[in-house]
Amino acid sequence: MTDSALAFVATNDLVAVTRGRALPLHELSPTSGVGWVPANLAINSFGRLMEPNPFGALGDLRLLPDMASRAALPLPSGNCDMFLADQTQPDGTPWECCPRSILKKALDRLAEDHGLSIMAAFEHEFALVDEHGKPEGPGAFTLSGLIGGEPFGAAARRSLSEAGVRWENWLPEFGPGQFEVTLAPEPALRAADCAIITREIIRTVAASHNKRATFAPLLHPDAVGNGVHVHLSLWRDGDPVTYDPSGRGGLSDVAQAASAGILDHAAGMLMWTAPSHISALRLTPHRWSAAGSFVGLQNREALIRVAAVPAGCDPSQAYNLEFRAADATANPYLVMAVLVHAICDGIDRGLTLDSVLIGHIDDEEFNALPVDLAGAITAFNNDDIAGGWFPPNLVEVALAVRQGELETLRGLDMQERCQAYVERY
Ligand code: GLU
Ligand code: MG
Q: Are residues 134 and 56 in the same domain?
């Protein structure tokens, strides 16, 4: 280790921006971490600190690094190791508004109340764009699209592997310049860590290849979206419990109740899973994103897709729910936390899954999701159960940062709004 080796102790905030502090790697301590400021949570995606906020100029926090989350970001100046951190009080107890700690608490609820745990994988789409934000490359699953992304792609995959992020597929996606990387299932907290590491490695490696990678949900209003799909399966006592061949859609009773919980809270969850001012546009029919609140077998318009299990795979091991209504403007810890709470609620209330769609969905059958962020916020405010999932201060700040974002975007048409997100994400 050289004295110049750098550690970046990182959080991911309410607008899914990774922020933190750097220090010499040899001085990094998992017990004392680095200092942090509560009001940092009130910085919006365009870098403005929203005021008033519940914290003001007051308070001291620590960022306590999870040493196991270490990921080398290959900067041109040499490696910088990123460590994902919990935001704590100075005495080391969790800060109530720390997204990573909120997820841990949600997972504790699932374990304590239901004896369940979750294995999950975040699947990311992104695009390589030029300096004007225009996509570079033919897309449409072409070999030339894959090759056009090299050697950036090779370097990114190598960095992911070196960071312990087990990527499964790397593909040229449908949109021009669009790629997708899918990850192997991990315990839910690690899966959310891996989502952040993946985004930052891809952005860093692209920059070092004089390219720009953007995870913005849409590059322009008519574009194919960049989605984040979250695959999850339920486990009890070390065994998967998502599959039951005799259950609706092949889902066990508990997986049906979990799905019903997600459907029940779908509209109220969106301000946490797809929270930008362009996110809702991605979630409209015929974009193969998540245009309606239903569970569908092999259906890419569904909020929850149940994928086919390939020959040679044990369905009891492979079966999972794919939640498709997330994007990279959402904090992965909070995405996972709302899913976990919705799952707990579905099981607590004994909700049943009325139907699993087999086959196509007709246009008139789409059970539409909120058409914009204002609708998603109203849905959250009307969802008394979801309202209890987060501390009031966190909700207040989440609403403030999105309001601030709207002020920055006011007067811009949808094309210009998309462009603003392309530059930021
Ligand atoms: N691009 C789609 C989205 O916005 C997903 C397409 C697919 O991989 O199924 O979610
Ligand atoms: Mg895809």
A: no
* Single-letter residue type at 298: Q
> In this structure, which ligand is nearest to the CA of 226?
1
Give the end of a domain, one of 75, 95, 115. 95
Domain boundary among 68, 95, 122: 95
pLDDT at 364: 74
Which numbered ligand comes closest to the C-alpha of 227?
Answer: 1
Asked if residue 393 lies in contact with residue 96, where contact means CB atoms within 8 angstroms, the answer is yes
Q: What is 384-399 written as a DSSP string?
A: HHHHTSS-HHHHHHHH
- Asked if residue 224 has its Cβ within 6 Å of ligand 1, the reply is yes
* Nearest ligand to residue 288 Cα: 1
pLDDT tens for each residue of 287-296: 999 989 999 9
Q: Which residues of the chain have pLDDT under 50?
A: none
User: How many separate domains does the chain show?
Assistant: 2
Name the residue at shortest CA distance from atom 7 of ligand 1: 288
Pair 154, 25 in one domain: no
Q: Give the residue, by CA position, lying nearest to ligand 1 atom 1.
A: 225
Q: Is the CB of 289 under 6 A from ligand 1?
A: yes
List the domain range (segments joined by +) for residue 11.
Answer: 6-95
Number of the ligand 1 atom closest to the C-alpha atom of 224: 1
| 241 and 329 share one domain | yes
Say yes or no: CB of residue 235 within 6 Å of ligand 1.
no
In this prediction, residue 100 carries a pLDDT of: 98
Domain-embedded: residue 179: yes
**Based on the domain organization, do 71 and 219 belong to the same domain?**
no
Examine residue 397 and state whether it is found in any structural domain, yes or no.
Answer: no
**Burial, 252: exposed, middle or buried (Cβ in 10 Å; 0-12, 13-18, 19+)?**
buried
89 CA to middle of ligand 1, Å?
A: 39
pLDDT at residue number 3? 60
For 79, other C-beta atoms within 10 Å of its C-beta total: 16
Q: From residue 320, how far is each of 143, 199, 243, 289 by CA, in Å?
A: 29, 23, 8, 17
